[in-house]
Design the sequence.
């Protein structure tokens, strides 16, 4: 089954990333992580995490790995592969999901 949702990630100078998305619509904390560039493969990769809550009770952590990120020539579009682990409070893996992503840069004028 294919599922699509919207997300907004901000890649900060120095290698950190923050973001949020429309899935799941509730029970998600703030997404935080790190990004890096591999000079050998000329690709970026990202690792993000967010805590999950059910009825205001901690329900584990979600690990999200985005790999094989390719940027367009001017850096305005990207594609990548996604692997996510939904972890229980004891850190055991409850579920594993995989998929792909496409994205575009949002230009902000100050």
Sequence:
């Amino acid at each position: 089954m294919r599922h699509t949702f919207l997300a907004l990630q901000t890649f900060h100078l120095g290698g950190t990333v923050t973001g949020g998305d429309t899935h799941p619509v509730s029970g998600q904390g703030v997404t935080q992580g790190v990004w890096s560039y591999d000079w050998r493969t000329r690709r970026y990769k990202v690792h993000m995490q967010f805590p999950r809550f059910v009825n205001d009770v901690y329900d584990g952590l979600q690990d999200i790995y985005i790999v094989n990120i390719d940027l367009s020539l001017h850096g305005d579009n990207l594609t990548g592969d996604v692997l996510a682990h939904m972890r229980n409070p004891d850190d055991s893996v409850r579920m594993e999901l995989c998929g792909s992503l496409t994205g575009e840069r949002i230009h902000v004028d100050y």
In short: The chain has a mean pLDDT of 86.
